[in-house]
Every structure is written in C-alpha cells, then in structure tokens.
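Continuing the batch. This is chain 6 of the set; chains 1 through 5 are on the previous pages. Same settings as before, nothing changed between runs. Recording input and output for traceability.
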Amino acid sequence: MKSSMLAQLAALRGAPAPVLKARWRELFDHEPPAYNRRFLESRLAYRIQELAYGGLSRETTERLKAMAKQYADQKPAERKARPVLRPVAGTKLIREWEGLEHCVTVRHDDFEYLGRPYKSLSSVAHQITGTKWNGWVFFGLKSSAGK
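Output for chain 6:
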C-alpha cells in the first residue's frame, strides 16, 4: 500500500490540470475548487495520505473546531491585532537608574509606580528619567533593536 501511495503522490507532480481535477472528483466526491494547480496538488497529496494513514484524531478535530469558533466570534479588528505580550499581573519590574532602584508592579490593566497608576511603561520610564523612553526597552523586556 505504501508504494502505491508514493506512486500516486509522484503522479500528481506532472499531471495536467484536467487529470488533477478528475482525481479530485474521485477522492472528494465533489467538483474541484477554482484554485491554482499548486493548491490542487497539495490538497490531493494530503487526501491520498489521509486515506492511506488515517486522518486527524477526534481530539485534534474538536480542538480545531473550537479554535475556528473562537476566531469566528472575533471582530475583524480583533483578529488582525497582535496579541499583547505583557508580564503577568503582580510581576515586579526593577530597574536601577542613576544609583536608585525603581520598582514597578504590573497590574491587570495598568502599572503601579510609587503608589500611582500609569497606563504604560513608557510613562513610568518618563517619570523616572525625565525623558521619553520606550518603557519595554527601559525595563529590559525588549531590546532596543526590536529583537
């Protein structure tokens, strides 16, 4: 069975588009989509291997469906937004500046420094230094090169 599967996969590479579409109808029991050749080849290759070795586990399929539902429930702007990677609430950020140690507490929605709330680490860094700083860089959470 394995050599047969490998032969089927190899045959996809040089097959003309009408042959790929016919193979699609055979393996999927419906008309092929109007996508390019590369898509048809890769999807057919996956299907051939799926039939030979078995598909995804039930747990994986359920997890993917749950992720798709979670994604579908988001607004388009939320889907495009990069996730905010901030330290866990309660984390203490300590930075020495001009011989003094400064401690900032990460809270759920903001940061606390000297008992006052600050919306951003940059505003805390500005308070400490008197100049504009990227707060993530100032507290060592991100390098200045953006790495």
